[in-house]
Amino acid sequence: MNEKPRQPAEPDPNQPGQTALELINTGAEWLRGTGRACDVVVSSRVRLARNLAGFPFMPRASRVDRQQIVDLCHHKLVEAELADRLLWIDLREVSRLDRNLLVERHLISQAHARGKIGNHSVTGGRTGEDEPRAVAVGLPGERLSIMVNEEDHLRIQVVKSGFALAEALTEIDTIDDRIEARADYAFHPRFGYLTACPTNVGTGIRFGVMLHLPALKLTGDIEKVTRAANDMSLAVRGFYGEGSEPLGDFFQISNQTTLGKSERVLLHDLEHEIIPKVIEYERVSRRQLIERRGEAIADQVHRAMGVLTHARLLATDEATRLLSQLRLGVAMGLIEKVDQQVVHNLMLLVQPAHLQRASGRNMTQAERRVARAKLVRNRLTEAMTRRA
Amino acid sequence: MKCACGKNEATIHEIVVVNGIVQEKHLCPECAESEGISPDPHANIASLLAKHAQPSPAGPSLSGPVAPRRPPSVRSVRCSACGTTFSQFKNEGLLGCADCYKAFEFPLGPLLERAHDGATHHVGKIPRRALAASRGGDLPIEALLGSLEERAERLATLRKQIAEAVAAEHYERAARLRDELRALGSAPSSPGADLPEDRPEA
After folding, report:
1. ipTM, 2 decimals?
2. A216-247 pLDDT, tens digit each
3. Residue A344 Cα, gap to closest chain B Cα (Å)
4. A357 and A21 in contact (C-beta within 8 Å)?
5. Which terminus of chain B, N or C, has fewer Cβ atoms within 10 Å?
6. Which residues of A fall within a CB distance of 8 Å from B129?
7. How many other CB atoms are there within 10 angstroms of residue A171's CB atom?
8. Residue B32: how many CB atoms within 10 A of its CB?
Protein backbone atom coordinates (compact mmCIF):
# COMPACT_ATOMS: atom_id res chain seq x y z
CA MET A 1 0.00 0.00 0.00
CA ASN A 2 1.91 2.96 -1.25
CA GLU A 3 -0.90 5.45 -1.30
CA LYS A 4 -1.54 7.78 1.53
CA PRO A 5 -4.56 6.65 3.48
CA ARG A 6 -7.65 8.63 2.73
CA GLN A 7 -11.30 8.48 3.64
CA PRO A 8 -13.78 7.10 1.10
CA ALA A 9 -15.16 9.74 -1.24
CA GLU A 10 -18.66 9.53 0.17
CA PRO A 11 -19.67 9.28 3.79
CA ASP A 12 -20.97 5.86 4.69
CA PRO A 13 -24.77 5.96 4.49
CA ASN A 14 -25.28 3.23 7.07
CA GLN A 15 -26.41 4.33 10.47
CA PRO A 16 -24.74 1.94 12.90
CA GLY A 17 -27.92 1.58 14.93
CA GLN A 18 -29.87 0.29 11.92
CA THR A 19 -27.21 -2.18 10.88
CA ALA A 20 -28.29 -4.97 13.20
CA LEU A 21 -31.94 -4.80 12.24
CA GLU A 22 -31.04 -4.75 8.58
CA LEU A 23 -28.98 -7.90 8.98
CA ILE A 24 -31.78 -9.69 10.81
CA ASN A 25 -34.31 -8.67 8.17
CA THR A 26 -32.27 -9.43 5.03
CA GLY A 27 -31.00 -12.78 6.33
CA ALA A 28 -27.82 -14.75 5.74
CA GLU A 29 -27.50 -17.09 2.80
CA TRP A 30 -25.93 -19.87 4.88
CA LEU A 31 -29.14 -20.16 6.91
CA ARG A 32 -31.13 -21.28 3.87
CA GLY A 33 -30.71 -24.94 4.66
CA THR A 34 -30.21 -25.81 1.00
CA GLY A 35 -27.29 -27.16 -1.02
CA ARG A 36 -25.38 -30.42 -1.21
CA ALA A 37 -25.74 -32.81 1.76
CA CYS A 38 -27.83 -30.22 3.60
CA ASP A 39 -29.44 -32.97 5.70
CA VAL A 40 -26.11 -33.12 7.57
CA VAL A 41 -24.05 -30.10 6.51
CA VAL A 42 -25.31 -26.72 7.69
CA SER A 43 -22.63 -24.54 6.11
CA SER A 44 -19.15 -24.47 4.57
CA ARG A 45 -16.72 -21.68 5.28
CA VAL A 46 -13.24 -20.67 4.21
CA ARG A 47 -11.17 -17.99 5.86
CA LEU A 48 -7.86 -16.39 4.96
CA ALA A 49 -5.50 -14.70 7.41
CA ARG A 50 -3.65 -11.81 5.78
CA ASN A 51 -1.43 -8.98 6.99
CA LEU A 52 -0.47 -5.77 5.23
CA ALA A 53 3.19 -5.26 4.41
CA GLY A 54 4.78 -2.31 6.20
CA PHE A 55 2.69 -2.42 9.38
CA PRO A 56 3.56 -4.24 12.61
CA PHE A 57 1.31 -7.18 13.48
CA MET A 58 -1.46 -6.51 15.98
CA PRO A 59 0.49 -7.20 19.21
CA ARG A 60 2.96 -4.42 18.33
CA ALA A 61 0.63 -2.08 16.43
CA SER A 62 0.14 1.30 18.08
CA ARG A 63 -3.23 3.02 18.13
CA VAL A 64 -2.07 5.18 15.23
CA ASP A 65 -1.02 2.08 13.23
CA ARG A 66 -4.38 0.50 13.92
CA GLN A 67 -6.32 3.57 12.86
CA GLN A 68 -4.27 3.78 9.65
CA ILE A 69 -4.96 0.11 8.91
CA VAL A 70 -8.71 0.63 9.46
CA ASP A 71 -8.73 3.71 7.19
CA LEU A 72 -6.69 2.01 4.47
CA CYS A 73 -8.82 -1.13 4.54
CA HIS A 74 -12.05 0.86 4.49
CA HIS A 75 -10.96 2.66 1.36
CA LYS A 76 -9.37 -0.32 -0.40
CA LEU A 77 -12.13 -2.81 0.38
CA VAL A 78 -14.89 -0.46 -0.78
CA GLU A 79 -12.90 0.30 -3.93
CA ALA A 80 -12.39 -3.41 -4.67
CA GLU A 81 -16.16 -3.94 -5.19
CA LEU A 82 -16.20 -7.23 -3.35
CA ALA A 83 -20.00 -7.57 -3.09
CA ASP A 84 -23.18 -5.95 -4.41
CA ARG A 85 -23.00 -3.83 -1.31
CA LEU A 86 -20.30 -3.79 1.31
CA LEU A 87 -21.56 -2.85 4.74
CA TRP A 88 -18.73 -1.25 6.72
CA ILE A 89 -19.15 -1.44 10.49
CA ASP A 90 -16.76 0.47 12.72
CA LEU A 91 -16.97 -1.61 15.88
CA ARG A 92 -16.29 1.33 18.16
CA GLU A 93 -19.45 2.98 16.90
CA VAL A 94 -21.91 0.18 17.59
CA SER A 95 -23.35 -0.90 20.92
CA ARG A 96 -22.16 -3.95 22.83
CA LEU A 97 -25.50 -5.58 22.06
CA ASP A 98 -24.98 -5.16 18.33
CA ARG A 99 -21.42 -6.43 18.55
CA ASN A 100 -22.79 -9.55 20.26
CA LEU A 101 -25.34 -9.86 17.48
CA LEU A 102 -22.50 -9.91 14.94
CA VAL A 103 -20.83 -12.68 16.98
CA GLU A 104 -24.07 -14.68 17.03
CA ARG A 105 -24.27 -14.33 13.25
CA HIS A 106 -20.67 -15.63 12.92
CA LEU A 107 -19.60 -12.36 11.28
CA ILE A 108 -17.00 -11.52 13.95
CA SER A 109 -15.26 -13.45 16.73
CA GLN A 110 -15.90 -12.93 20.45
CA ALA A 111 -12.38 -11.54 20.72
CA HIS A 112 -13.03 -9.01 17.95
CA ALA A 113 -16.23 -7.88 19.67
CA ARG A 114 -14.21 -7.10 22.78
CA GLY A 115 -11.20 -5.61 21.01
CA LYS A 116 -8.88 -8.44 21.97
CA ILE A 117 -6.13 -9.92 19.81
CA GLY A 118 -7.60 -13.31 18.97
CA ASN A 119 -7.58 -15.68 21.93
CA HIS A 120 -4.14 -14.53 23.08
CA SER A 121 -3.25 -12.42 26.05
CA VAL A 122 -0.50 -10.08 25.00
CA THR A 123 1.42 -8.26 27.68
CA GLY A 124 1.76 -4.64 26.72
CA GLY A 125 -0.38 -5.22 23.61
CA ARG A 126 -3.29 -2.83 23.33
CA THR A 127 -6.70 -4.38 23.89
CA GLY A 128 -10.11 -2.99 24.70
CA GLU A 129 -13.43 -1.95 23.25
CA ASP A 130 -11.99 1.41 22.20
CA GLU A 131 -9.33 -0.01 19.89
CA PRO A 132 -9.73 0.86 16.18
CA ARG A 133 -11.22 -2.16 14.43
CA ALA A 134 -13.98 -2.95 11.99
CA VAL A 135 -15.84 -5.57 10.00
CA ALA A 136 -16.97 -5.40 6.37
CA VAL A 137 -20.02 -7.50 5.48
CA GLY A 138 -21.04 -8.40 1.92
CA LEU A 139 -24.75 -7.86 1.24
CA PRO A 140 -27.08 -9.32 0.38
CA GLY A 141 -26.56 -12.73 1.90
CA GLU A 142 -23.65 -12.10 4.32
CA ARG A 143 -21.54 -14.59 2.36
CA LEU A 144 -18.48 -12.41 2.83
CA SER A 145 -17.15 -10.86 6.01
CA ILE A 146 -13.77 -9.29 6.61
CA MET A 147 -12.58 -8.57 10.13
CA VAL A 148 -10.05 -5.74 10.24
CA ASN A 149 -7.56 -5.70 13.14
CA GLU A 150 -8.49 -8.96 14.82
CA GLU A 151 -5.51 -11.30 15.37
CA ASP A 152 -4.30 -10.40 11.87
CA HIS A 153 -4.88 -7.19 9.93
CA LEU A 154 -7.37 -8.99 7.71
CA ARG A 155 -9.43 -12.09 8.35
CA ILE A 156 -11.43 -12.75 5.19
CA GLN A 157 -14.31 -15.24 5.41
CA VAL A 158 -16.71 -16.71 2.87
CA VAL A 159 -19.64 -18.87 4.03
CA LYS A 160 -22.03 -20.90 1.95
CA SER A 161 -25.08 -23.02 2.71
CA GLY A 162 -24.60 -26.81 2.54
CA PHE A 163 -21.47 -28.70 1.55
CA ALA A 164 -19.77 -26.24 -0.81
CA LEU A 165 -16.10 -25.89 0.10
CA ALA A 166 -14.88 -25.76 -3.51
CA GLU A 167 -17.30 -22.97 -4.39
CA ALA A 168 -16.34 -21.08 -1.24
CA LEU A 169 -12.64 -21.41 -2.13
CA THR A 170 -13.20 -20.10 -5.66
CA GLU A 171 -15.10 -17.14 -4.28
CA ILE A 172 -12.60 -16.23 -1.59
CA ASP A 173 -9.70 -16.63 -4.02
CA THR A 174 -11.20 -13.98 -6.31
CA ILE A 175 -11.86 -11.68 -3.37
CA ASP A 176 -8.30 -12.16 -2.13
CA ASP A 177 -6.93 -11.34 -5.62
CA ARG A 178 -8.99 -8.17 -5.75
CA ILE A 179 -7.70 -7.00 -2.40
CA GLU A 180 -4.16 -8.02 -3.27
CA ALA A 181 -4.35 -5.94 -6.46
CA ARG A 182 -4.71 -2.90 -4.22
CA ALA A 183 -2.67 -3.78 -1.15
CA ASP A 184 0.68 -5.45 -0.51
CA TYR A 185 0.43 -8.49 1.73
CA ALA A 186 3.23 -9.57 4.05
CA PHE A 187 4.70 -12.59 2.25
CA HIS A 188 7.88 -14.64 2.61
CA PRO A 189 9.12 -17.12 -0.01
CA ARG A 190 9.72 -19.85 2.54
CA PHE A 191 6.91 -19.18 5.01
CA GLY A 192 4.20 -17.94 2.61
CA TYR A 193 1.60 -15.48 3.87
CA LEU A 194 2.89 -14.19 7.18
CA THR A 195 0.53 -14.25 10.15
CA ALA A 196 0.82 -13.09 13.75
CA CYS A 197 0.45 -16.66 14.99
CA PRO A 198 2.78 -19.16 13.29
CA THR A 199 0.03 -21.80 13.40
CA ASN A 200 -1.68 -19.92 10.54
CA VAL A 201 1.41 -19.16 8.43
CA GLY A 202 1.73 -20.46 4.86
CA THR A 203 -1.58 -20.41 3.05
CA GLY A 204 -3.28 -18.71 6.01
CA ILE A 205 -6.31 -20.74 5.05
CA ARG A 206 -8.83 -22.48 7.23
CA PHE A 207 -11.63 -24.58 5.81
CA GLY A 208 -14.49 -25.25 8.18
CA VAL A 209 -17.60 -27.35 7.73
CA MET A 210 -20.45 -27.08 10.20
CA LEU A 211 -22.11 -30.45 10.60
CA HIS A 212 -25.26 -31.48 12.40
CA LEU A 213 -24.45 -34.87 13.92
CA PRO A 214 -27.27 -35.78 16.34
CA ALA A 215 -27.21 -39.52 15.52
CA LEU A 216 -23.44 -39.85 16.05
CA LYS A 217 -23.80 -37.90 19.29
CA LEU A 218 -26.61 -40.18 20.45
CA THR A 219 -24.72 -43.40 19.65
CA GLY A 220 -21.50 -42.03 21.15
CA ASP A 221 -19.66 -42.59 17.86
CA ILE A 222 -18.87 -38.88 17.71
CA GLU A 223 -15.83 -39.75 19.84
CA LYS A 224 -14.51 -41.90 17.00
CA VAL A 225 -15.00 -39.06 14.54
CA THR A 226 -13.17 -36.66 16.82
CA ARG A 227 -10.27 -39.07 17.33
CA ALA A 228 -9.99 -39.84 13.60
CA ALA A 229 -10.12 -36.14 12.79
CA ASN A 230 -7.41 -35.32 15.32
CA ASP A 231 -5.21 -38.04 13.85
CA MET A 232 -5.50 -36.26 10.52
CA SER A 233 -4.59 -32.86 12.00
CA LEU A 234 -8.17 -31.68 11.89
CA ALA A 235 -9.91 -29.89 14.72
CA VAL A 236 -13.46 -30.59 15.88
CA ARG A 237 -15.03 -27.57 17.51
CA GLY A 238 -18.39 -26.28 18.67
CA PHE A 239 -21.01 -24.03 17.07
CA TYR A 240 -19.07 -20.84 17.75
CA GLY A 241 -15.64 -22.09 16.72
CA GLU A 242 -12.44 -22.10 18.72
CA GLY A 243 -12.94 -22.69 22.42
CA SER A 244 -16.70 -23.18 22.17
CA GLU A 245 -18.63 -26.20 23.35
CA PRO A 246 -20.69 -28.21 20.91
CA LEU A 247 -24.16 -26.70 21.03
CA GLY A 248 -27.20 -28.71 20.01
CA ASP A 249 -25.13 -31.43 18.28
CA PHE A 250 -23.50 -28.99 15.87
CA PHE A 251 -19.80 -29.54 15.20
CA GLN A 252 -17.26 -27.74 13.07
CA ILE A 253 -14.47 -29.71 11.43
CA SER A 254 -11.52 -27.68 10.18
CA ASN A 255 -7.89 -28.04 9.16
CA GLN A 256 -5.22 -27.15 11.69
CA THR A 257 -2.12 -27.04 9.51
CA THR A 258 -1.52 -24.29 6.96
CA LEU A 259 2.11 -24.81 5.96
CA GLY A 260 3.35 -27.25 3.34
CA LYS A 261 -0.02 -28.12 1.83
CA SER A 262 -1.57 -26.05 -0.92
CA GLU A 263 -5.13 -24.76 -0.76
CA ARG A 264 -6.14 -27.32 -3.41
CA VAL A 265 -4.65 -30.28 -1.57
CA LEU A 266 -6.28 -29.26 1.71
CA LEU A 267 -9.59 -28.80 -0.09
CA HIS A 268 -9.27 -32.20 -1.72
CA ASP A 269 -8.50 -33.91 1.59
CA LEU A 270 -11.57 -32.42 3.26
CA GLU A 271 -13.99 -32.47 0.36
CA HIS A 272 -13.23 -35.90 -1.05
CA GLU A 273 -11.62 -37.86 1.77
CA ILE A 274 -12.83 -36.80 5.17
CA ILE A 275 -16.13 -34.92 5.26
CA PRO A 276 -18.00 -37.33 2.91
CA LYS A 277 -17.10 -40.16 5.29
CA VAL A 278 -18.48 -38.28 8.29
CA ILE A 279 -21.65 -37.42 6.36
CA GLU A 280 -22.15 -41.05 5.37
CA TYR A 281 -21.45 -42.21 8.94
CA GLU A 282 -24.12 -39.85 10.27
CA ARG A 283 -26.62 -40.93 7.61
CA VAL A 284 -26.07 -44.63 8.33
CA SER A 285 -26.46 -43.97 12.07
CA ARG A 286 -29.70 -42.09 11.43
CA ARG A 287 -31.07 -44.98 9.35
CA GLN A 288 -30.10 -47.47 12.03
CA LEU A 289 -31.75 -45.36 14.71
CA ILE A 290 -34.99 -45.31 12.70
CA GLU A 291 -34.84 -49.07 12.15
CA ARG A 292 -34.03 -49.98 15.74
CA ARG A 293 -35.62 -47.18 17.74
CA GLY A 294 -38.04 -45.59 15.28
CA GLU A 295 -40.80 -44.89 17.77
CA ALA A 296 -38.43 -43.44 20.35
CA ILE A 297 -36.85 -41.09 17.80
CA ALA A 298 -40.23 -39.97 16.44
CA ASP A 299 -41.40 -39.41 20.00
CA GLN A 300 -38.35 -37.28 20.80
CA VAL A 301 -38.75 -35.15 17.67
CA HIS A 302 -42.47 -34.57 18.20
CA ARG A 303 -41.96 -33.84 21.89
CA ALA A 304 -39.42 -31.21 20.88
CA MET A 305 -42.00 -29.73 18.52
CA GLY A 306 -44.60 -29.86 21.28
CA VAL A 307 -42.47 -27.98 23.76
CA LEU A 308 -41.28 -25.42 21.20
CA THR A 309 -44.86 -24.63 20.13
CA HIS A 310 -46.34 -24.54 23.63
CA ALA A 311 -43.72 -23.57 26.20
CA ARG A 312 -44.11 -20.24 27.97
CA LEU A 313 -40.50 -20.02 29.23
CA LEU A 314 -37.42 -21.03 27.22
CA ALA A 315 -33.73 -20.72 28.09
CA THR A 316 -31.18 -20.44 25.24
CA ASP A 317 -29.65 -23.87 25.85
CA GLU A 318 -32.98 -25.63 26.01
CA ALA A 319 -34.24 -23.87 22.89
CA THR A 320 -31.06 -24.78 20.98
CA ARG A 321 -31.25 -28.41 22.06
CA LEU A 322 -34.90 -28.70 21.03
CA LEU A 323 -34.28 -26.94 17.72
CA SER A 324 -31.47 -29.41 17.03
CA GLN A 325 -33.94 -32.27 17.55
CA LEU A 326 -36.45 -30.50 15.33
CA ARG A 327 -33.77 -30.15 12.63
CA LEU A 328 -33.21 -33.90 12.77
CA GLY A 329 -36.96 -34.46 12.44
CA VAL A 330 -37.13 -32.18 9.38
CA ALA A 331 -34.08 -33.83 7.78
CA MET A 332 -35.57 -37.30 8.31
CA GLY A 333 -39.00 -36.35 7.00
CA LEU A 334 -40.68 -36.83 10.38
CA ILE A 335 -41.75 -33.16 10.44
CA GLU A 336 -43.10 -31.85 7.16
CA LYS A 337 -44.67 -28.54 8.01
CA VAL A 338 -41.43 -26.73 8.83
CA ASP A 339 -38.34 -26.30 6.65
CA GLN A 340 -34.67 -26.08 7.61
CA GLN A 341 -34.48 -22.34 6.98
CA VAL A 342 -37.10 -21.71 9.66
CA VAL A 343 -35.14 -23.89 12.10
CA HIS A 344 -31.81 -22.21 11.24
CA ASN A 345 -33.26 -18.73 11.60
CA LEU A 346 -34.67 -19.67 14.99
CA MET A 347 -31.26 -21.01 16.06
CA LEU A 348 -29.99 -17.44 15.70
CA LEU A 349 -33.11 -15.60 16.86
CA VAL A 350 -33.16 -17.39 20.23
CA GLN A 351 -29.64 -16.09 21.04
CA PRO A 352 -29.69 -13.21 23.56
CA ALA A 353 -28.57 -10.33 21.32
CA HIS A 354 -30.85 -11.33 18.45
CA LEU A 355 -33.78 -11.75 20.79
CA GLN A 356 -33.32 -8.31 22.30
CA ARG A 357 -32.76 -6.70 18.92
CA ALA A 358 -35.87 -8.34 17.44
CA SER A 359 -37.90 -7.24 20.47
CA GLY A 360 -36.45 -3.75 20.26
CA ARG A 361 -35.31 -3.45 23.87
CA ASN A 362 -32.80 -4.67 26.46
CA MET A 363 -34.22 -7.39 28.69
CA THR A 364 -33.32 -9.25 31.85
CA GLN A 365 -32.71 -12.99 31.63
CA ALA A 366 -36.18 -13.74 33.00
CA GLU A 367 -37.79 -11.42 30.46
CA ARG A 368 -35.76 -13.02 27.69
CA ARG A 369 -37.11 -16.47 28.54
CA VAL A 370 -40.67 -15.25 28.14
CA ALA A 371 -39.88 -13.38 24.92
CA ARG A 372 -37.91 -16.35 23.53
CA ALA A 373 -40.77 -18.79 24.11
CA LYS A 374 -43.23 -16.39 22.50
CA LEU A 375 -41.01 -15.78 19.47
CA VAL A 376 -40.43 -19.48 18.85
CA ARG A 377 -44.15 -20.24 19.29
CA ASN A 378 -45.16 -17.53 16.86
CA ARG A 379 -42.57 -18.35 14.21
CA LEU A 380 -43.32 -22.07 14.20
CA THR A 381 -47.09 -21.57 14.19
CA GLU A 382 -46.71 -19.07 11.36
CA ALA A 383 -44.52 -21.48 9.35
CA MET A 384 -46.98 -24.33 9.81
CA THR A 385 -49.97 -22.18 8.81
CA ARG A 386 -48.09 -21.08 5.69
CA ARG A 387 -47.42 -24.68 4.71
CA ALA A 388 -50.93 -25.90 5.48
CA MET B 1 19.85 -36.84 -9.69
CA LYS B 2 23.02 -38.88 -9.14
CA CYS B 3 24.37 -39.84 -5.72
CA ALA B 4 27.55 -38.21 -4.48
CA CYS B 5 29.34 -41.50 -5.29
CA GLY B 6 28.49 -40.84 -8.94
CA LYS B 7 27.42 -44.43 -9.56
CA ASN B 8 23.81 -44.74 -8.53
CA GLU B 9 20.63 -42.70 -8.62
CA ALA B 10 20.14 -40.63 -5.45
CA THR B 11 16.91 -41.71 -3.81
CA ILE B 12 17.54 -40.42 -0.29
CA HIS B 13 17.66 -36.70 0.27
CA GLU B 14 18.78 -35.34 3.60
CA ILE B 15 18.67 -31.67 4.35
CA VAL B 16 20.25 -30.43 7.54
CA VAL B 17 20.06 -26.82 8.67
CA VAL B 18 22.77 -25.78 11.09
CA ASN B 19 22.79 -22.19 12.29
CA GLY B 20 20.73 -21.20 9.27
CA ILE B 21 23.11 -22.88 6.80
CA VAL B 22 21.49 -25.51 4.61
CA GLN B 23 23.48 -28.67 3.96
CA GLU B 24 22.04 -31.08 1.45
CA LYS B 25 22.92 -34.70 0.85
CA HIS B 26 21.57 -36.66 -2.09
CA LEU B 27 22.54 -40.30 -1.70
CA CYS B 28 21.89 -43.76 -3.02
CA PRO B 29 20.67 -46.33 -0.44
CA GLU B 30 24.14 -47.89 0.01
CA CYS B 31 25.92 -44.61 0.64
CA ALA B 32 23.07 -43.52 2.93
CA GLU B 33 23.44 -46.62 5.03
CA SER B 34 27.18 -46.18 5.31
CA GLU B 35 26.49 -42.63 6.55
CA GLY B 36 24.02 -43.92 9.12
CA ILE B 37 20.93 -42.41 7.46
CA SER B 38 17.81 -44.55 7.60
CA PRO B 39 16.63 -45.45 4.09
CA ASP B 40 13.16 -46.23 5.45
CA PRO B 41 10.79 -43.62 3.96
CA HIS B 42 8.23 -44.37 6.66
CA ALA B 43 10.60 -43.71 9.54
CA ASN B 44 8.83 -41.84 12.28
CA ILE B 45 9.15 -38.15 11.49
CA ALA B 46 9.22 -37.34 15.18
CA SER B 47 12.29 -39.49 15.71
CA LEU B 48 13.95 -37.86 12.72
CA LEU B 49 13.15 -34.48 14.17
CA ALA B 50 14.40 -35.52 17.55
CA LYS B 51 17.68 -36.47 15.91
CA HIS B 52 18.15 -33.20 14.06
CA ALA B 53 16.14 -30.44 15.62
CA GLN B 54 15.73 -31.68 19.18
CA PRO B 55 12.23 -30.28 19.65
CA SER B 56 10.73 -30.19 23.11
CA PRO B 57 8.39 -33.11 23.80
CA ALA B 58 5.48 -30.84 24.71
CA GLY B 59 3.27 -31.64 21.68
CA PRO B 60 2.04 -29.15 19.13
CA SER B 61 1.66 -26.22 21.52
CA LEU B 62 3.74 -23.23 20.53
CA SER B 63 3.86 -21.74 23.98
CA GLY B 64 5.37 -24.70 25.80
CA PRO B 65 8.73 -24.46 27.52
CA VAL B 66 11.86 -24.21 25.42
CA ALA B 67 13.70 -27.49 25.01
CA PRO B 68 16.34 -27.68 27.74
CA ARG B 69 19.13 -28.47 25.29
CA ARG B 70 18.54 -25.31 23.24
CA PRO B 71 21.20 -22.68 23.88
CA PRO B 72 19.84 -20.22 26.45
CA SER B 73 20.73 -17.29 24.19
CA VAL B 74 17.84 -18.14 21.82
CA ARG B 75 15.35 -16.71 24.28
CA SER B 76 16.96 -13.30 24.15
CA VAL B 77 17.12 -13.07 20.34
CA ARG B 78 15.40 -9.82 19.46
CA CYS B 79 13.70 -8.69 16.24
CA SER B 80 15.43 -5.47 15.26
CA ALA B 81 12.32 -4.15 13.48
CA CYS B 82 9.73 -4.36 16.28
CA GLY B 83 11.76 -5.26 19.37
CA THR B 84 9.92 -8.52 20.11
CA THR B 85 12.17 -11.09 21.82
CA PHE B 86 11.87 -14.81 21.18
CA SER B 87 11.06 -15.27 24.84
CA GLN B 88 8.17 -12.80 24.51
CA PHE B 89 6.89 -14.73 21.49
CA LYS B 90 7.06 -17.99 23.45
CA ASN B 91 4.94 -16.47 26.21
CA GLU B 92 2.36 -14.78 24.02
CA GLY B 93 2.22 -17.13 21.03
CA LEU B 94 2.20 -14.21 18.60
CA LEU B 95 4.93 -12.58 16.53
CA GLY B 96 5.31 -8.81 16.41
CA CYS B 97 5.88 -8.16 12.72
CA ALA B 98 6.80 -9.71 9.37
CA ASP B 99 10.54 -9.33 10.13
CA CYS B 100 10.19 -11.57 13.22
CA TYR B 101 10.00 -14.52 10.80
CA LYS B 102 13.52 -13.65 9.62
CA ALA B 103 14.89 -12.76 13.03
CA PHE B 104 13.61 -16.02 14.56
CA GLU B 105 13.97 -18.20 11.47
CA PHE B 106 16.29 -20.67 13.20
CA PRO B 107 14.41 -21.25 16.48
CA LEU B 108 11.01 -21.06 14.71
CA GLY B 109 11.87 -23.93 12.36
CA PRO B 110 11.25 -26.84 14.77
CA LEU B 111 8.16 -25.14 16.21
CA LEU B 112 6.65 -24.75 12.75
CA GLU B 113 7.44 -28.36 11.92
CA ARG B 114 5.63 -29.50 15.05
CA ALA B 115 2.63 -27.27 14.41
CA HIS B 116 2.37 -28.18 10.72
CA ASP B 117 2.96 -31.94 10.58
CA GLY B 118 6.62 -31.65 9.69
CA ALA B 119 6.20 -29.06 6.93
CA THR B 120 8.96 -26.48 6.55
CA HIS B 121 8.02 -24.55 3.41
CA HIS B 122 5.01 -22.81 1.94
CA VAL B 123 3.28 -24.56 -0.93
CA GLY B 124 0.33 -22.85 -2.55
CA LYS B 125 -0.83 -19.42 -3.54
CA ILE B 126 1.67 -16.63 -4.15
CA PRO B 127 0.56 -12.98 -4.28
CA ARG B 128 -0.01 -12.14 -7.93
CA ARG B 129 1.15 -8.57 -7.65
CA ALA B 130 4.51 -9.65 -6.31
CA LEU B 131 4.78 -12.29 -9.01
CA ALA B 132 3.95 -9.77 -11.74
CA ALA B 133 6.45 -7.30 -10.31
CA SER B 134 9.16 -9.96 -10.40
CA ARG B 135 8.37 -10.66 -14.07
CA GLY B 136 8.86 -6.96 -14.72
CA GLY B 137 12.54 -7.57 -14.15
CA ASP B 138 13.42 -5.80 -10.89
CA LEU B 139 13.02 -8.71 -8.56
CA PRO B 140 14.20 -12.22 -9.43
CA ILE B 141 11.60 -14.92 -9.03
CA GLU B 142 13.84 -16.65 -6.48
CA ALA B 143 13.08 -13.78 -4.13
CA LEU B 144 9.51 -15.08 -4.06
CA LEU B 145 9.96 -18.79 -4.47
CA GLY B 146 13.06 -19.00 -2.35
CA SER B 147 16.61 -19.78 -3.30
CA LEU B 148 17.40 -22.71 -5.55
CA GLU B 149 18.28 -24.70 -2.44
CA GLU B 150 14.92 -23.88 -0.92
CA ARG B 151 13.09 -24.82 -4.09
CA ALA B 152 15.02 -28.06 -4.27
CA GLU B 153 13.98 -28.74 -0.71
CA ARG B 154 10.35 -28.03 -1.52
CA LEU B 155 10.51 -30.26 -4.57
CA ALA B 156 12.02 -33.02 -2.44
CA THR B 157 9.20 -32.63 0.11
CA LEU B 158 6.58 -32.85 -2.61
CA ARG B 159 8.20 -35.95 -4.08
CA LYS B 160 8.18 -37.56 -0.66
CA GLN B 161 4.49 -36.70 -0.19
CA ILE B 162 3.70 -38.16 -3.63
CA ALA B 163 5.50 -41.39 -2.73
CA GLU B 164 3.54 -41.59 0.52
CA ALA B 165 0.23 -40.89 -1.26
CA VAL B 166 0.94 -43.61 -3.84
CA ALA B 167 1.97 -46.06 -1.12
CA ALA B 168 -1.33 -45.39 0.66
CA GLU B 169 -3.18 -45.73 -2.68
CA HIS B 170 -4.45 -42.15 -2.53
CA TYR B 171 -4.02 -41.68 -6.26
CA GLU B 172 -6.13 -38.55 -6.62
CA ARG B 173 -4.11 -36.84 -3.94
CA ALA B 174 -0.90 -38.01 -5.60
CA ALA B 175 -2.08 -36.55 -8.91
CA ARG B 176 -2.78 -33.22 -7.28
CA LEU B 177 0.60 -33.17 -5.59
CA ARG B 178 2.20 -33.96 -8.92
CA ASP B 179 0.40 -30.99 -10.52
CA GLU B 180 1.81 -28.85 -7.77
CA LEU B 181 5.28 -30.23 -8.28
CA ARG B 182 5.04 -29.46 -11.99
CA ALA B 183 3.84 -25.93 -11.29
CA LEU B 184 6.73 -25.35 -8.93
CA GLY B 185 9.25 -26.91 -11.29
CA SER B 186 8.02 -24.92 -14.29
CA ALA B 187 7.66 -21.56 -12.55
CA PRO B 188 9.34 -18.80 -14.54
CA SER B 189 12.91 -18.25 -13.48
CA SER B 190 15.48 -15.54 -13.96
CA PRO B 191 17.87 -15.99 -16.89
CA GLY B 192 20.53 -18.58 -16.33
CA ALA B 193 18.86 -20.10 -13.30
CA ASP B 194 19.53 -23.79 -13.13
CA LEU B 195 16.37 -25.42 -11.92
CA PRO B 196 16.46 -28.82 -10.31
CA GLU B 197 15.20 -31.44 -12.70
CA ASP B 198 11.50 -32.17 -12.27
CA ARG B 199 11.47 -35.91 -12.35
CA PRO B 200 8.62 -37.84 -10.79
CA GLU B 201 9.81 -40.68 -8.66
CA ALA B 202 6.71 -42.40 -7.40
Report:
1. 0.86
2. 998 999 999 999 888 888 988 877 655 556 67
3. 34
4. yes
5. N
6. 180-181, 184
7. 19
8. 20
